[in-house]
């Protein structure tokens, strides 16, 4: 029955009626590391909290349902979620990855390449043919962020799912920017979806977390084995905070989306801005100033918007990818990928859009005076 | 099988109920304000979290078991527990209360209760005859705190209970300084035990909480009515934290009180210290009574220096303890009652109670006792010159 419900209803109802013994509307937080066995070989289904925790289990089942997958895994950070997925690969195996991706992911991919010979093969993803030309017998996955961070490129997931499956590879999608509210990659063919749940899912800039959702029993079992075996699990308290965050995610995203549209339109007509990178959906956009030397003054003069790393929270953040998210990428490579020194990334919050625009307006007026 | 209280501290929170359904060794935290009901005419155990919450329930059952009482109640603070119990009184009632009472209780009794027509008489509770003399036909309650704060006065609990029975009064006892481990007021006939659980029960200077335990069901129901009507309940996360922290109360209290004995003896031997107030010293006037009703001398002591200047110099010279209000934490806490716990008391009232300008209170933490004594030694040298 629940599968017929709209995502808004699923979000709000997550965890409700999960504790019939008390009727608690919110699931309890089980800060219990161990669970009593009634006898040898008899378990309540819970043994040790790394393996399974009642609070985390509700979150994991919830995200699996929201993404249309078969199993969910909550991890201690978004990067831990990526590490969990990368643990599926063996030395010599390759993943094809678009050039534009989060700097932390890039850094971890490099580590896996250098340490385990698990290789990211970067590509501009200009066409399916171009990507297919990179596939060889070692290719095991296509790993896509869509939209990408920070250049906001979108990829046709159905096409790349088909391509991956044709070559017996997985399509892995980082769905952090859109969330299952805007995009459900598994429904259009992806095998694994992952999230930095620190972002829109948590939504309040208060909890660090990652989520992985997998399709299919065999893949789910393999991921579950590593999740328990490596232990990058999310704590009960943080799991509960994510459940709470999910209950308002649709409302927040509607407002993020409306605000981002208004701000994108405003930035489009601002002469000091050369490019606005916005997909037309969601709360993330990037833009380039005319001159890199304005960036410092721009960030210093913001009064409402916070200059900070991270995204997806209720508060508006502007990030400078060159020194923040992509600091670990060599300069030439970073610029080649489009993350130039004039680029700013804007995580549009859910403040009143007029106030955000007024803040940008006064920053640009200051820049004009100083220019 | 009757278990030792040390064992009950570890297990009382999960004796029964929901935790065992999943086998969890700790009670889950129910951050749920409301509870789904299965039927219109048959409500479940929980409906609204002010009225009852499974996590708070576990705590309330645990403290009731630990104190050997019938019903436990958890409140938002120690003073919320005190004031909730005092709300069991009615207009026209009179209280006889120890003059050495905690400043916050003093403030409520003198400034708030009179507005409800509840009067009081402060008495030196080390003097049973004085208590009896203060009892009037309107007296409904004898309120004890033993050892008292901050001068560690000892009240004869059995003696006061006998008076209460004779005059048909209730007895409430603030057991904060001793914990149920070392003083068992309900077993001595007291009606309600009160704790500032912020202190030794929680013990980590982390949460604010109060607990009460009643000796009988009727008082328990009456107090529940107050708790639910006033809404001065303890929150779920604090209830959980308290349950967890209570598990180490015995080991913490044992270590702290061992150290307190050594520190009291050290201070007692120092010529600058005019007096040490600690029931572990044979010279303490309440020594015999205290040890007839308690199994520990406790982890709090006070001592008097000759002047404000010397007290100030000592406070400023001490390197290890936190200089702060409160007590019962893992870290040693040095306080200056005249300006801290008893600031809400008028100067003349303070003087009457021995809370002089040279009085300092020391809550002994879990640091190594030799380090604490060395710290006192160097600070006393500096204070002597001040």
TrEMBL record, chain A:
InterPro entries per UniProt: Cys/Met-Metab_PyrdxlP-dep_enz, Cys_met_metab_PP, PyrdxlP-dep_Trfase, PyrdxlP-dep_Trfase_major, PyrdxlP-dep_Trfase_small
Q: Which domain of life is it from?
A: Bacteria
Q: Which PANTHER family match?
A: CYSTATHIONINE GAMMA-SYNTHASE, TRANS-SULFURATION ENZYME FAMILY MEMBER
Write down the required cofactor(s).
pyridoxal 5'-phosphate
Under which name does UniProt file this protein? Cystathionine gamma-synthase
- According to its UniProt entry, this protein's organism is Lysinibacillus contaminans
Q: Where is the signal peptide?
A: none
- Under which EC number(s) is this enzyme classified? 2.5.1.48
Listed NCBIfam families: PRK08247.1
What Gene3D superfamilies does the annotation carry? Aspartate Aminotransferase, domain 1, Type I PLP-dependent aspartate aminotransferase-like (Major domain)
* Presence of keyword Transferase: yes
Cite the GO molecular-function annotations of the record: cystathionine gamma-synthase activity
Q: Which UniProt keywords apply?
A: Pyridoxal phosphate, Transferase
A Pfam family this chain is assigned to: Cys_Met_Meta_PP
Family affiliation: Belongs to the trans-sulfuration enzymes family.
Automatic annotation (TrEMBL), chain B:
List the SUPFAM superfamilies: PLP-dependent transferases
Enzyme class of the recorded protein, top EC level: lyase
InterPro entries from the UniProt entry:
Cys/Met-Metab_PyrdxlP-dep_enz, Cys_met_metab_PP, PyrdxlP-dep_Trfase, PyrdxlP-dep_Trfase_major, PyrdxlP-dep_Trfase_small
Query: Which Enzyme Commission number(s) are listed?
Result: 4.4.1.13
Q: Which GO terms describe its molecular function?
A: cystathionine gamma-synthase activity
Cofactors per UniProt?
pyridoxal 5'-phosphate
Q: Which controlled-vocabulary keywords does the entry list?
A: Amino-acid biosynthesis, Lyase, Methionine biosynthesis, Pyridoxal phosphate, Transferase
What's this protein's family per the entry?
Answer: Belongs to the trans-sulfuration enzymes family.
| Family annotation (PANTHER family) | CYSTATHIONINE BETA-LYASE, TRANS-SULFURATION ENZYME FAMILY MEMBER
| Name of the protein | cysteine-S-conjugate beta-lyase
């Amino acid at each position: 029955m629940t599968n017929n419900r709209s995502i808004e209803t699923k979000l709000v109802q997550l965890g409700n009626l999960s504790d019939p013994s008390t009727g608690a509307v919110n699931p309890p937080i089980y800060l219990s590391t161990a669970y009593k066995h009634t006898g040898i070989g008899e378990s309540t289904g819970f043994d040790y909290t790394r393996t399974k925790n009642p609070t985390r289990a509700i979150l994991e089942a919830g995200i699996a349902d929201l993404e249309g997958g078969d199993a969910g895994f909550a991890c201690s950070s978004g990067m831990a979620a990526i590490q969990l997925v990368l643990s599926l690969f063996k030395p010599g195996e390759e993943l094809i990855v678009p050039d534009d991706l989060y700097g932390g992911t890039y850094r971890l991919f490099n580590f896996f390449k250098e340490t385990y010979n698990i290789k990211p093969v970067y590509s501009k993803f200009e066409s399916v043919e171009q990507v297919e030309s990179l596939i060889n017998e070692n290719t095991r996955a296509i790993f896509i962020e869509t939209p990408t961070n920070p250049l906001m490129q979108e990829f046709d997931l159905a096409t790349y799912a088909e391509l991956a499956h044709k070559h017996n590879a997985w399509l892995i999608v980082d769905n952090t920017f859109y969330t299952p509210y805007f995009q459900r990659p598994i429904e259009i063919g992806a095998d694994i979806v992952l999230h930095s749940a620190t972002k829109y899912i948590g939504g309040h800039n208060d909890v660090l977390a990652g989520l992985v959702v997998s399709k299919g029993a065999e893949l789910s079992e393999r991921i579950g084995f590593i999740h328990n075996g490596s232990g990058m699990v999310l704590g009960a308290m943080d799991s509960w905070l994510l459940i709470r965050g999910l209950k308002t995610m649709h409302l927040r995203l509607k407002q993020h989306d409306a605000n981002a549209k208004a701000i994108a339109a405003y930035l489009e007509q601002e002469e000091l801005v050369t490019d606005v990178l916005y997909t037309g959906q969601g709360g993330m956009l990037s833009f380039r100033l005319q001159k890199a030397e304005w960036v410092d003054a721009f960030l210093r003069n913001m009064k409402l918007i916070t200059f900070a790393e991270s995204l997806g929270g209720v508060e508006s953040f502007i990030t400078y990818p060159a020194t923040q998210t992509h600091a670990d990428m060599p300069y030439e490579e970073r610029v080649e990928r489009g993350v130039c020194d004039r680029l700013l990334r804007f995580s549009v919050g859910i403040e009143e859009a007029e106030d955000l625009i007024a803040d940008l307006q006064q920053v640009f007026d200051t820049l004009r005076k100083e220019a | 099988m009757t278990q030792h209280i040390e064992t009950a501290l570890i297990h009382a929170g999960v004796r029964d109920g929901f935790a065992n359904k999943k086998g969890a060794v700790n009670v889950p935290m129910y951050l749920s304000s409301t509870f789904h009901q299965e039927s219109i005419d048959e409500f479940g155990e929980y409906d609204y979290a002010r009225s009852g919450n499974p996590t708070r329930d576990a705590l309330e059952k645990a403290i009731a078991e630990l104190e050997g009482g019938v019903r436990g109640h958890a409140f938002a603070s120690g003073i919320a527990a005190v004031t909730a119990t005092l709300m069991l009184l009615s207009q026209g009632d009179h209280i006889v209360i120890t003059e050495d009472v905690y400043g916050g209780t003093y403030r409520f009794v003198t400034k708030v209760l009179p507005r409800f027509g509840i009067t009081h008489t402060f008495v030196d509770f080390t003097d049973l005859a004085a208590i009896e003399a203060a009892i009037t036909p309107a007296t409904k309650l004898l309120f004890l705190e033993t050892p008292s704060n901050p001068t560690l006065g000892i009240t004869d609990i059995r003696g006061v209970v006998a008076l209460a029975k004779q005059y048909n009064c209730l007895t409430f006892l603030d057991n904060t300084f001793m914990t149920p481990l070392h003083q068992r007021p309900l077993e001595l006939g007291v009606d309600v035990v009160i704790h500032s659980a912020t202190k030794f029960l929680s013990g980590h200077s982390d949460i604010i909480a109060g607990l009460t335990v009643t000796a009988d069901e009727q008082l328990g129901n009456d107090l529940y009515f107050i708790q639910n009507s006033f809404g001065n309940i303890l929150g779920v996360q604090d209830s959980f934290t308290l349950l967890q922290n209570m598990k180490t109360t015995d080991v913490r209290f044992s270590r702290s009180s061992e150290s307190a004995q050594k520190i009291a003896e050290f201070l007692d031997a120092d010529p600058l210290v005019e007096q040490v107030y600690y029931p572990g010293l044979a010279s303490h006037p309440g020594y015999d009574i205290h040890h007839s009703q308690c199994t520990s001398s406790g982890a709090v002591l006070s001592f008097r220096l000759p002047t404000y200047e010397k007290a100030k110099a000592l406070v400023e010279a001490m390197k290890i303890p936190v200089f702060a209000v409160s007590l019962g934490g893992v870290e040693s806490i040095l306080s200056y009652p005249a300006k801290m716990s008893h600031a809400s008391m008028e100067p003349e009232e303070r003087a009457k109670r021995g809370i002089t300008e040279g009085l300092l209170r020391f809550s002994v933490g879990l640091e190594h006792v030799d380090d604490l004594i060395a710290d006192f030694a160097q600070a006393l040298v500096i204070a002597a010159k001040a």
